[in-house]
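Justification of resources, computational component.

The compute hours requested in this renewal are based largely on the per-chain cost of generating structure records like the one below. Each record pairs the submitted sequence with a full structure-token output. That output is archived, and it is also reused by downstream analysis tasks.
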Amino acid sequence: MNWKWQKLVRNLHGLQVQRAMHYTCRAPLFAYPHQHENIFHLSYVITGRSHIEIDGVRYEIGPDSAIFIRPGQIHVSIGDARTNYDLIETKFSVDSRRAQAVVPNLPPVVHVQNPAAFVPAMERLVSAWLVEGSQDNWLARLRLTECLYLLAKEAGPLEFAEAAEDSVLRQIRQAADYIAANFSQPITVELLSELVGLSTSHFAACFKKIMTVSPIEHLIRTRMYHARELLHDSSFSVGQIATICGFSSQHYFSRLFTRKHGVSPTRYRRSGTQGRTNK
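The structure output for this chain reads:
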């Protein structure tokens, strides 16, 4: 893949680093839905957990998550306001179609398996930017290409995606959109793979690579998210919430909820009510 990195380097003049920072902040990362017309946004999470929504698709983020937002993508973060984040972040733009064409077509969230290589590369980008914080900073541009190259390697088959791989990414987004809109209905991997026109095994592998979790785990997390919202903000019984959110029974929902959150749905609801009452 060295030739592809060399293509990035040859187009350094077309890349413009707008900002590179290592900082700590409180949740949420992005307080309201917005987009950047000409800006790429690359963030790496060192500490902190939450969810981020990009173009209507929800992703879980945590330590070692790299978030890649392309120009025009609407994004907002959803999470506990008590969460602290330690982040390395850069924003960059391109001034030519040729330069934009060689930017890796990365998925929105990549779980970095080799932080020992990626984190120092991001830190070198920050250092280069701090030395000379201008769009003409040649060293910062070079460090940026190193980060993009390493992240493309982490993304596996989606690195520098060709047209066919772009199609797979759209198909996985279609499946995620279907889950978001129909989470209360019976959904299987077979149904999703048939919906997007992929074999079951290929669909499952691609979904996990892009979304970092299996289709069924993503479905369960979506249902759990809505269940937590209903426990906090509705008067529905636990059994009714289980049905509304697509769980097969109240017993299964309660057992799964307790395993994932350490408390039963009833105790979770009580703690949330007390928290709102004490504010």
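The chain has two domains: 2-158, 162-279. The beta strands are 15-26, 40-47, 50-54, 57-61, 65-69, 75-78, 84-94, 109-111.
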